[in-house]
UniProtKB/TrEMBL annotation:
PANTHER family: HEXOKINASE FAMILY MEMBER (PTHR43085), PSEUDOURIDINE KINASE-RELATED (PTHR43085:SF1). Pfam families: PfkB. The keyword Transferase applies. Gene3D superfamilies: 3.40.1190.20. Keywords: ATP-binding, Kinase, Nucleotide-binding, Transferase. InterPro entries: PfkB_Carbo_kinase, PfkB_dom, Ribokinase-like. The keyword ATP-binding applies. GO terms for molecular function: ATP binding; kinase activity. It comes from the Bacteria. This is 2-dehydro-3-deoxygluconokinase.
Amino acid sequence: MGTDLFTFGEALSVFISSDTDSVMSATKYERVTAGAEVNVAVALSRLGLKAQFFSRFGNDQLGSVMLADIEAEGVDTSLVKRVDSFTGAMVRNSGKSQAVEISYLRKGSAASTIEPADILDSYISSAKWLHTTGITCAISQSGEKTVKHALKTARELGVKASFDLNIRRKLWSESQASATLAPIAENVELLIGGEDEFKVVFGDSDAKRVLAQMNKRGCKIAVMTKGDQVMRYSIDGQYDEITPPKVVAVDPVGSGDAFTGGSIAGLLSGLAPSDALKQGSICGALVASMFGDWTGMPTGSAGLISDELSKKV
Ligand code: KDG
C-alpha cells in the first residue's frame, strides 16, 4: 500500500527541565519524542494523510518508548531498524524565562549509522512525497550520503521532494554546513530555510534575490522563514510574502517542522502552492503556542485543516 509521505532522519528523546528554566539547576525533566523529520511525519498524519518514518533506533528502552510515541500518532514505523547502539537524546530548558539552550547526546547514535542501502527504491516509489533535512547530513557522513541517495532516487522516480536546510550549529561549523548543503539544495519541489540559513549556505539573505536564485536551481517553491515574522517565498520566479497568524509563542521549537508538514499536506491535497504555505504558517503558529514539538499541531482530514480553524486563526 502506498503512502503520502516517506521521510527519514534521527528521532530524539527530548528531556525538558520542568522545575527550573535551566539545565544547570533543574532536577526534574519531562521527556517527549521529537526530531525534525518525525515532526513533519506527525504533522501529515494529524492532517489525515499517511506518513512513513524510517530511522535506526537503538535496542534500548528509549528507542522502544519513542517508537510507541510515533506510532500513537498514526505514523507508520514498520520499516525502522533496531541496531546495537543507543538512541539519541537532547537535553534543554523550557525557555519560559530565558533563551532555550540545548545539549545533544547523539554523536555515534543508532540513527547516525543510517546508510544509503537502508533506503530501498520501493520506499520512495510507493510514496507521493519525500522529505529530508540538513540535520541528517550533519549527523554523519553516511547520513549525508543517504540524503543525497534518497533525493537522487526521488528525482529518477519522479517523486516530489522537499529539503529543509535546518542547520544545527552544535553539530557542525557554518563552513561545513555551507559546503555540504549548497550542492544538495537544488531540484526539489519545496526548499525551506531560515533567513540566517540562506545566508550561511548561499552567502545571501536578500529574500527576493536568493529565492529567485533557488527557483533557477530547480527548486519550484523556495521559502525563507524568519521565526514568527513575515515569511518570504518565490514560486517559479513569482515573489510574495505571508504574515503568519499572531499567537502567544510559548515554545517555538518544532514550529518550523509544523510549517513544513502543513505545507506539504496542503500541496498533496491539491491546494494552490500559496494556499498550502498559508496552511503551513497556521500549523507553525499553533505549534509555537504550546509546549512540545507537535503538541499544538492541529488535526484535519485529507491533508487540510478545517475551514473553521483557518478562519479562527
Ligand atoms: O526542528 C525541531 C528539532 O530541532 C528538534 O526536534 C530536535 O531534530 C532536532 C534537532 O536535531 O535539533
